[in-house]
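Data's thin. Show one?
=====
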Amino acid sequence: MLPKHYFSFAFLLFITVANCSSQTGIDTLEFQSGYPLRSVSALQQLESFPSPRYVPGNDLIHLFNWMNPLYMGGNGQKEIKKKDAIEAAFKIQEELILHWNYFLFIPNATYAFDAKSFSDPNSPFSSYVKLANKHPEVPLGTTVFWMQLQPEKLGYKKKRPNILLQDLPDRFYVKDKTGTVIKKRVNFAAPDSLFAEDGQMQAKCLRNLLDHLTRPIDLINENGEEPPGNMSESDVSGDKDMIADKKKLGIDNWNTYIAVKKQHIRNVYSSQFMSFPELKKTWFTVYAVEGGPINRFDWNASKKTCSQIKGNYYSTPDFYPRHPNNWKLWQGAWHGWKWINDGRMKEIKSGDRFFSPFVAAGWDTNPEKDIRPGQWLGLLKCLSVVGAEFYYVAYFNLRPPFTKPENYVWQAAIPAYAQAVTTHYKDVFRDGNVLMDEKGNPVVTYPVNDKDVLVAVRKHDQKQEYIIAATLQPSSNTERSAPDKPVEIKIDGETIRIKARRQGSVYFFDKSAKPYVFYQLDRWHQYEHPSRWRTEMIFEAEVPDTSSSGITISTIYDKAGTPLNFTYSESVVILQKEQWLGYMIDKRDLEHNAGDVYIKLFVRSKNKQNGTLELDGWKKDFTVTGDNKWQWVFIKLEKTMSAKAALLKLTSQAELEIDKVAVGSGMNPPDLKGY
């Protein structure tokens, strides 16, 4: 028999309907508190959101902020002065690196023309460098933009980089068999000197930046949209210079030639600065180097444009569905899940298990048209399960009037929530992969008989341990649907039933255990905007940040018939004497709770016994009655935390079953409605 408090799902559906805007039909719970009448700054929102709950000491690569902190600080808003935007950008960056697992970020080193770039009060470079030097313990990333090079400001007479010049000799452009230029794009047989000189210009900019840093740069990312693009065979096959070059290289087909030459051109460019001694350990990556199905260079060649990261090549596709109804396929340049599916199949078959997509939920001036937080969180969790270790988190301020940052800052938080879940299945992530079908093809999109549900599955190479992510995807922001739906999938020949939520549900499934062990890693996540998530912290006991060895996890689920039903399953931890569990508590999460704070344990034991709690030097014994009934035990936290974060350690003095650990205000059970 399951404890009664597990069954509380109708409430969320009522809330969804009851909070619709009468004007637009949107669910206002998917927007920041007070929307649209009251505005809360981007920084204030980040500071108020619940912490993402990374496992301490994890080694996942940090998130890369492509959102541009200056615009996040209000640059371009009529009421914001440039100086104030720079100051706000500094604070937002520090917030992201200290609490959300982001790289430090210096945008567009291509604009570091000279020493004045670092003293100009209207340039943010000085502020960014100050922050980077202040935090050498945090990895630093920067971007470079080949096509935005400004040679005149670097001492050259030309106005544009060679890659964009329109007055070169005709032999450097794309020609037909008569020698007539058909595309004024530098061709694949153009001399290396053109690309080398561009790289030398970029090197000057990076040298200016390096001269102001007292710490290394860990990652340089190039925009990667420079010509020549991935042209068709008909475009290039008549050009006598490329025909001769292809023959000289001994390459038989044009697609391979184009990919190999593109890789070569980019490497000639990047080698001009990546050869700096200070960049010996720096990763270099290029946007949109991937196995995508249309207008992409061959993955096996193009991936060598980028550095290997931890012995792997990480593809960099753009996952920009933008609108709710585009999550599944793609429309033009706006790529949904199928684009990822097709590209990942090629990449995984090539031996590249991990990737690092560029992600954006939308950048419309009307935020009601963008994908909302819950739907986006569900999609990112599926990306993680199919190999996304980190994200380049993007947002585009294209033209005035720029979107107010308070309307999109949540897009910086959601990737951290998704990545933090991955730290709780790091072994399966590192030493696992998606499953393969009978033909040896990677199963990126796991089969499910529901058009609105997306499922992704990853399995450990050596163990019968699976990670399953499932999300229920709406097709519009005005769609009225339940927050979750049961769905059936087949795992290793056995059909199981699980629950797919809009915000995604990530499950750990151990088939080697008898009976099976099955539990959810992200149950505390909500579909609403993060400003509306509960302030009370609730931890499932079986998802600790650390623990003593040998703890036992037991799962209660419906074993009768088939499928095995895990939709209402519960898992508990059974601790023996001196065994313990640890949960990392962020001090500011405590501060989100008003009044006296209590640690609340949902436990049971056969005999009356004691346990011990410890947090940041505070220690307290507690007693559990011995009637073998589930009960809430309340322990008042009698000390203010001094550390920014500390481990809440729970030790048992005899056999004790633990279901939940909650931390929040008041001596009352946590609010589990919709949980």
